[in-house]
Write a structure and sequence with these properties.
There is one protein chain. The protein is of the alpha/beta class. The chain has two domains: 100 residues, Response regulator (Rossmann fold), CATH 3.40.50.2300; 58 residues, Winged helix-like DNA-binding domain superfamily/Winged helix DNA-binding domain (Arc Repressor Mutant, subunit A). It is built from seven helices and seven strands; from the N terminus they run βαβαβββαβαβααα. A five-stranded parallel beta sheet has the order 2-1-3-6-7, with helices on both faces. Strands 4-5 form a two-stranded antiparallel ribbon. The chain is elongated, with a radius of gyration of 25 Å.
């Protein structure tokens, strides 16, 4: 699958990666020399993948990756030499999807793009699932608090309190969360 690609780095490194991508059929490739140009291009171009030299001429690749990911999640792949392993590890910790070491080859670059995009999709799915779990936990806490209020004020068992919330939800065609919040709000007013 060919993605819109943004390459960030120095003139020489951008040219090297662009040449390898061109040989592989990527025709939507933009180059940005330096961190500020890369940030601007990422915003305007909305690439499907960003390939970034870990050594930028005018900035820090780790900070740039973090800033881009905060604005819009996108697979970011960093490249560098093995002597820059500490910077590559730092970039990975900031959220980049994958990395590749020099010397770059067309086959390795294509593989790391696919692997990075796949890893990015997996991370996005996990992030979404985590958000859903947090929301479910938040709602559950509200329902538990409302059950406690009903148990105390109406001398209901835990099961009966839950069934009452469930019945109010069903009969009024509103979520259990809203029923629970209404019970909590009413309790706080009394």
């Amino acid at each position: 699958m060919a993605y819109k690609v943004l390459i960030a780095g120095g003139k020489e490194s951008c040219g090297e990666v662009a040449s390898l991508l061109g040989d592989s059929g990527y025709d939507e490739v933009r180059q940005a020399e330096g961190a500020s140009a890369a940030l601007e291009a990422a915003r305007a171009y909305q690439p499907g993948v960003i390939i970034m030299d870990v050594e930028l001429p005018d900035g820090d690749a780790v900070s740039l990756a973090g800033e881009i990911l905060n604005e819009r999640p996108v697979p970011i792949i960093v490249f560098g030499s093995y002597s820059q392993i500490d910077k590559v590890k730092e970039a990975e910790a900031s959220g980049v999807s994958s990395y590749i070491f020099r010397p770059l080859s067309r086959e390795n670059l294509m593989g790391v793009i696919e692997l990075g995009a796949s890893r990015f999709r997996q991370c996005q799915a996990l992030h979404s699932e985590l958000g859903s779990c947090k929301e479910a936990l938040r709602v559950r806490k509200l329902v538990e608090k409302a059950k406690g209020i009903l148990m105390k004020r109406s001398a209901l068992s835990e099961e009966d309190a839950f069934l009452k919330i469930q019945k109010l939800s069903r009969n009024n065609n509103i979520s259990m969360e809203k029923v629970a919040q209404s019970i909590i709000t009413a309790s706080e007013l009394l």
